[in-house]
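Hello,

Our lab assistant flagged a job as stuck in the queue for most of the afternoon. It eventually completed. Since we weren't sure the result was trustworthy after the delay, we are filing this so someone can double-check. Below is the sequence as submitted and the structure that was eventually returned. Let us know if re-running is recommended.
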Amino acid sequence: MKKYIIERDVPGVGNMTAEELEAISKTSVAVISVLGRPYTWVQSFVTENKIYCVHEAENEQDIREHAKCADIPVNQINEINAVIDPGTAQGRSTKTI
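-- returned structure --
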């Protein structure tokens, strides 16, 4: 599977309660369980007005279908090609996806 980063515009998401974020998470997990194809939600990062999600899927269309079924916006999808971190600056290997 390919790994993607997804940008979602969700005004005010940074002010949502733990219960509201839990509800969004439960919806996402429920949709994944019925998609009928390989799909993994790795993690998400919540900022003031956006959610940045890392998902693994066969293709971008699967991500769009997940979002549509979960009623979650998708503003941008980018395939992740490599992961770098401070160790990369010290000559440690870069993880190619």
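-- support follow-up --
The delay was a queue issue, not a problem with the job. The result is valid. The CA atoms of residues 17 and 23 lie 10 Å apart. The mean pLDDT is 94.
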